[in-house]
Amino acid sequence: MIGVVDTSAFLRMIIPDGPIPEGFDAFMRGVERKEHLALAPDLLWPEAASVLCKKEKRGELTISEGMEILALMREFPLRILAHGARISEAFTLAYQHDLTPYDALFLTCALEKNAVLFTADFRLQKVAIRLGAGFPGGRADLNG
Q1: How far is CA 87 from CA 47, 73, 81, 92, 104, in A?
Q2: What is the pTM of this model?
Q3: Which segments in the chain show pLDDT lower than 50?
């Protein structure tokens, strides 16, 4: 399986501050065993750093802990995709589906690579399922 991992899902692996996306644990174990391929746009890194900075400002972690988390993330076998060539498609998806361009970029990568998008963002998950990039059998309520 090929999966695009968004920042919210990736950080949930390390900071369990909410539910982990359905099927994500098994997918990530498969990535570690080289049975699956994990992809993400290079936006993942500044977006993760931004989330960690916000958590530090709120006193939820220290700068040292944030640096450790970034180091752990960089060790994971994740194939990074340049997002420059994908920005026009992401912009269109953002407009069409009322997403942020950041979220739409992860979705663009998933659609381009015929991959599943793993996200902890319920709104993004709903759009991914509608467009065929959601986790098979996912529980997102498309009517909500």
Answers
A1: 16, 24, 12, 9, 9
A2: 0.89
A3: 138-144
